[in-house]
Amino acid sequence: MSGQPQPQPQRAAPHARADYPRLLPMTIRLRDIDVYGHMNNVVYNEYFDTAVNQTLVELGVLDLEKSEVIGLVVHSQTSYFRPVSFPDRVVLGLRVGRLGRTSVTYEFALFRGDDDSAAAQGSYTHAYVDRASSRPVELPPALRRALEPLVRASA
Fold first, then answer.
1. Structure pTM?
2. pLDDT at 9
């Protein structure tokens, strides 16, 4: 180390609501709020996880109890721009950033009320595995077809 300050990574700019093909309305719960009066950082991942699984169930490509192929989170990240609090109504935007052979990177943005700019955004990657063996598997064709309309245009 030279003792010189290290450059800071460039922070992402908040995404716009129009960047997301799937929008899911949600309501902040009182229990989501921490002692500082805003939604606790760990709760964002619960909302992201709900958005993915609700979408997969609604698209008919996930049965939470019986699907032989399941996605496991292997990476996640979130950036925060503005606080969210109770009783805010939020809209969670969902899209697919990368549709791989054995994995999918889902991207999210959480919009407060009618705001067009994200209060927080992030992503996580699901590695798809055989439920019984936990061994990696290729994405089932039905899952790939269901997710293709959600792929980010520049991905």
1. 0.89
2. 64
